[in-house]
Specification:
Blueprint (H helix, E strand, L loop, with lengths): L12 E2 L11 H17 L4 E10 L7 H19 L14 E3 L4 H8 L6 E10 L1 H14 L8 E10 L4 E9 L5 E6 L2 E3 L5 H8 L13 E12 L7 E5 L6 E6 L8 E4 L3 E3 L10 H14 L10 E13 L4 H11 L9 E5 L2 E5 L6 H15 L26 H17 L6 H22 L25 H15 L4 H8 L13 H11 L4 H15 L3
Parallel strand pairs: 2-10, 8-16
Antiparallel strand pairs: 1-4, 2-4, 3-4, 5-6, 6-7, 9-12, 9-13, 9-14, 10-11, 11-12, 15-16
Length: about 550
């Protein structure tokens, strides 16, 4: 599925990367800060600015003056761009300050057992990573691109004739198992942790060249823990025993979430993992940090309800496997730059590494390279055609007023349709419908208007159900299948609606998703029942 890999398994942090300042990677941080602000402006329904706490912990963290210097530099790198950015929450990131010992934040951290000598506050962003991917794909379709989900490349070969050359692409639909052939003038391999594998399909002769003529690639697993105990204050960044590494504790970002997320680990891997799972060692590592730093936070085995992990692709600046492996083993993958690298060949680009926050700028860089190849050397970076100035589909005509008006309309329509209930029952149903309407607008933005259309708004209220918001949830599921190419249960509940990783009491939608898949797809009962079984084995109770 779209966003199946690390793009839906990140820390959900939209940030410049404070710790990369220690690596002196100033250009990466500055670009990430610029891209953070663009995404806050172009996808306000999927992002938010929030404050973070950076405590000074004697003998373990950097000193107060070093942290202050780092946060000052972080603000300075963002400052020039902020001068031309939109107003509002973006201005927050220009400021950082030391909280007083009597501040609410200080008292809350102290009550949870954290020992610190000083506390700094700064600002960064959070995001719904998977939905940002989906909205970019939807927008590509609006602009004329053909986007195909569940497609697997089987063969990629550069063919040449007397007058032309082109890529011969053989690919298969993983749902129907049908095979197809296509021709392409240019191929961009942006397959994330699968990029080296796809490159080897295009250039089989390169299989032994990784770390020699080609960059050295190391995979790193990052794991996260989710707790049903809500986090009562701003997010906090804490040092680990490994120099230059930190872990975070903050509210989990998803529509309707009342949970805490803790992460992330950095475990070097020999190979890519198809479906990455957190190891018990990583779980114990993070729980150990919490027992040491926040012993009274109630973030422990009893409130831990889910883990998830993703695989990063890191590019090491070395031409030797031995040197690369020594570097990873002795300095850790956390010290490897997140700067991306391109492999450029004849009518072919391969992307290795990079940061999620910087994705738009990286895509723009690829577009420039393609334009130059075809003799169209136009700089679109700052022009009106640039994606810098293009809101994602859910953010077009977005404002707080439009958002609130749409929520009110959804609540009104879906409450009025409950004509099988008494006025008293309707009144009892109102809070759940209001919550689901708010969640729908957080997911789809202004596009949630479509849920009022009879094409999606077809579910009837059942007098015996206890979930009054079920018809509105079902409309969203139907929309995700029709408009966003969701094919399986996990596609809908994990990556389109962000429900799967909520605490057990908030997880819902399985029956509605099954009903809509049977109604709208060509898949039969047996296939969908297996799909449900796979989903439950992968996610429910883990």
């Amino acid at each position: 599925d779209f966003a199946f890999g690390a793009s839906s398994r990140s820390s959900k942090m939209l940030h410049g990367g404070i710790r990369y300042l220690e690596q002196r990677d100033l250009s990466l941080v500055r670009e990430a800060l610029q891209e953070r602000d663009l995404l806050l402006k172009n996808a306000p329904h999927l992002t938010r600015m929030r404050d973070f706490l950076f405590p000074v912990i004697p003998k373990r963290s950097r000193s107060a003056w070093q942290i202050n210097l780092g946060l000052s530099l972080y603000s300075l790198l963002a400052k020039n761009f902020h001068a031309q950015a939109s107003v509002g929450p973006h201005k927050k990131s220009l400021f950082r300050h030391a909280s007083s010992p009597s501040s609410i934040e200080s008292r809350k951290l102290e009550s949870m057992g954290l020992c610190f000598s000083k506390l700094f506050t700064y600002f960064d962003g959070q995001m719904d990573d998977a939905r940002i991917v989906i909205e970019n794909i939807v927008d590509a379709g609006v602009l004329g691109a053909l986007t195909i989900n569940y497609a697997c490349i089987e063969e990629l070969r550069l063919a040449k004739t007397v007058n032309d050359k082109y890529w011969q692409v053989k690919w298969k639909c993983n749902i129907s198992n049908e095979s197809f052939e296509s021709k392409a003038k240019f191929v961009v391999n942006a397959a994330g942790s699968w990029a080296p594998e796809l490159h080897n399909i295009a250039y089989p002769q390169d299989k032994e060249e990784w770390g020699k003529k080609l960059p050295t690639v190391i995979f790193s697993r990052g794991s996260h823990l989710l707790f049903s105990q809500p986090w009562p204050t701003s997010g906090v960044i804490l040092p680990t025993p490994t120099k230059g590494r930190y872990y975070f504790v903050w509210p989990y970002y998803a529509p309707g979430a009342q949970a805490t997320m803790v992460g992330t680990t950095e475990i070097p891997l020999t190979n890519n993992e198809e479906n990455s799972l957190s190891s018990q060692q990583e779980v114990e590592e993070l729980l150990g940090y919490l027992r040491r730093d926040l012993p009274n936070s109630h973030l422990n085995e009893s409130t831990l309800y889910r883990t998830f992990s993703g695989v990063r692709t890191l590019v090491i600046p070395s031409r030797s496997h031995k040197r690369a492996n020594f570097f990873a083993k002795n300095t850790g993958t956390s010290n490897i730059s997140r700067t991306h690298v391109w492999i450029e060949r004849d009518s072919y680009l391969c992307l290795l590494g990079g940061k999620f926050t910087n994705a738009r700028a990286t895509a723009e860089e690829a577009s420039q390279k393609i334009h130059m190849l075809f003799g169209k050397n136009r700089d679109r970076t700052y022009g009106e055609e640039s994606t810098r100035h293009r809101p994602l589909p859910g953010a077009k005509d977005w404002s707080e007023h439009e958002k609130n008006k749409l929520i009110e309309k959804l609540v009104s329509v879906f409450t009025q349709r409950a004509n099988c209930f008494s006025d008293r029952q309707k009144s009892a149903a109102l809070p759940s419908i209001q919550l689901e309407a708010n969640n729908a607008v957080m997911r789809f933005g202004i596009r949630a208007k479509a849920l009022l259309d009879e094409k999606y708004n077809i579910a009837k209220f059942d007098p015996v159900i206890s979930d009054f918001a079920s018809p509105l949830l079902q409309a969203q599921i139907r929309y995700a299948i029709i408009q966003e190419q969701a094919v399986k249960i996990e596609d809908i509940l994990r990556r389109r609606l962000s429900i799967t990783l909520l605490p057990a009491g908030q997880v819902r939608g399985l029956e509605e998703a099954k009903r809509e898949l049977l109604s709208l797809s060509y898949r039969n009962h047996k296939e969908i029942d297996k799909d449900i079984s796979d989903y439950q084995n992968s996610w429910i109770g883990k």
